[in-house]
Amino acid sequence: MNTVAAMPPKNYEVLPKTSETGEPLGELLEISMGPHHPSTHGVFRMDVVLDGEKVVRLKPVFGYLHRNHEKIGENISYLASMPYTDRLDYFCSMTNNWAYALTVEKLAGLAVPERAEYIRVIMAELTRLQNHTCLIGFVVQDMGALGTPMMYAFREREKILDLFESVSGARMMCNYMRFGGVRVDVTDEWLAQAKQLVDGYSKFLDEFEMFLTENEILLARTQHVGVLPKDLAVSAAITGPMLRASGVNYDLRKVDKYGIYSRFDFKVPLGEHGDIYDRYMVRVLEMRESVKILQQALRDIPAGPVMDPKTKLRGFRPKAGEVYGRVEGPKGELGFYLISDGSPNPYRYRVRPPSFINLTILEDMCLGHRISDAVVILGSVDIVLGEVDR
Amino acid sequence: MAVPGAKIDILPNECPAGERSLLVDAASVFAVAKFLRDDAQLYLDYCSNVTGIDWPDKELTEKIKVKQVVDGVEKEVEEVKKSLRPGFLEAVYHLYSMELKHGPVVLRMRTVNRAEQTHLPSLTPLWRGAEFQEREVYDLYGVIFDGHPDLRRILMWDGFKGFPMRKDYVAPDDFEYEPTPHDEVLEQAKKHYSTEVKA
Question: Which pTM value belongs to this model?
């Protein structure tokens, strides 16, 4: 049975007088953190009410980067939305491309050639590697380790971005996938370079972990901080590493088996306590599994076309209908919901942004912790404002 | 039937991989949703995606054959019958089960019209994950969710007027002077000053 009780109405207008346990509070201080604050990962604002250093209320405020992405999507053709999806989560443009392409393929019933499926898996897993690596760098930076760990992470990310650039022409805004396949084929030299990077990645992770995993400061700052209970995580529609750190085994690569994920041998790492440390550990272990997937994909990739010749990209008009497609992005379930009325533009174009929905429980996780912990908790949610505000 | 008195329609979907959806009337949707969440076989504990759709008034044309007597001879004449489908706003929920790993069940509900009767029951008390997404639907479409704990604008600023995702929304005219207006900018410029060249 679901045990989460109904939520009482929130009132942000009136300052609280007592803490959650009923103790009287001292003089309260209301701080507006952000939108321009180095630790909010973009133009995100938190209205925090503090009792001394303790957080007694936290109101997230969004919309500073809002450009009504969904309305833009309704006014342009299906193909023209593809470069816009790059700008959602600008760290993981490849995964965004795939989610959108997958949804349109589901809508129109298009087939994808074998080689393209392998290339997509390779790109998505490389994206996961660089996203998780950077995120750990950012979180450690939020804890006060300025510069050095993040530079280690960015060094590895740069190698992956070089690979993206050589195949798609852009480091971050790749615009690489198309419905029915991918835009250009990869060369054998590219695959050899990718293999070299993947084989060396475990060594980098060992090095990274040597500095961090048993680091006393990291342990003190992350264990039992920002705990997210299992039932609340499920009810609040948390997805991705956050959900799995709370111990729920739900990975769309295993559940939906979209693309060709059923062919690879990999495990889904799970956390136990749902605190920041578990989130960190789940991400590290997920990267190790990604390396395994990449090694299998690079070994098995067949020759052949990368685009279904029957796909008509220009003047593409799917039949009327609606579809919801989703993939396991590095931040959680990235979904697209499309309604077609038979015209060249979608009637409704909706993005289900994982990091936006993962912020639902930010206040619940931060209450009672110190303001310096709230910064780390926000970092561990892994948000990108391009996706949160759309 | 688990919820007595509930009016449920199953809507078709013509797309190849299409999931059909349940259209539930607003009065009984909360009870139906609670049943979907708590039933041991369905157990849809995960409300993934919540979104709104705007359906403005639409003129439906229907061709019907009518028998008419023309010059004493009975003939079959095609007649175009026009009817007006009143517009409404729709909220769509995609429900999955994390426990049993199945889904989706697509749940929809519709408002009475687009002008003033845009109230729907909120499902946030059942699924916390709907909290921000229902706020977003309110912000961009103007659906008012009764029972929502904190229904405020989320992406647009407080005090913003209008609902930008509606099909008939007109963006405010924020024209700035252009020295050499052309195409759309020229059309816009004409509304603000005379663009004719003076002799």
Answer: 0.86
